[in-house]
C-alpha cells in the first residue's frame, strides 16, 4: 500500500500551486494514497496479448450527410464587428510581446 507523508502532500500542493490547510493534509494524503494504489493495481493487469480497441462494440457510428444546413451570415455579422480585416475579426492582443 502506498502511503503519502505530510511532506509529500506539501510538495505536491506546492508544485500544483495549491494552498491546502494543514488540517486537510491527512485527508488528502489518504485519498491520494488510495488513488495511487488503484493505479498500481491497474498497472499489474496482464495486457500483453490484448488487442487495443477504439470502441468496445463491433460497430460504427452512423454519420449524417455533409450538407450545408445554415445560411451564410458572414458579411452581416462582420458588419456588426468593431474591427475586421480580410474577412477576419480583429481582437486585442492577449499574450504579451515577450
Descriptive notes:
This protein is mainly alpha-helical. About 35% of the residues lie in helices and about 5% in strands. The protein is built from three helices and two strands, in the order αααββ. Strands 1-2 form a two-stranded antiparallel sheet. The two termini are about 45 Å apart. The model has no long low-confidence stretch (mean pLDDT about 90).
Keyphrases for this structure?
98 residues; mainly alpha; single chain; two-stranded antiparallel sheet; 3 helices; flat; 2 strands; Histone, subunit A
In short:
By secondary structure, the chain is mostly helical.
CATH fold-level topology of the domain at 6-43: Histone, subunit A
The share of residues in extended strands comes to: under 5%
- Succession of helices and strands: HHHEE
Distance between the termini: 47 Å
Shape descriptor reads: flat
Number of helices: 3
Mean pLDDT: 89
The profile of the biggest β sheet is: 2 strands, antiparallel
What is the CATH architecture term of the domain at 6-43? Orthogonal Bundle
Strand order of the largest sheet: 1-2
CATH top level label of the domain at 6-43? Mainly Alpha
**Helix content, binned percent:** 25-40%
- Tell me how many strands there are: 2
- Based on secondary structure, the structural category is mainly alpha
The low-confidence runs, each spanning 5 or more residues with pLDDT under 50, are: none
Mind telling me the C-alpha Rg?
26 Å
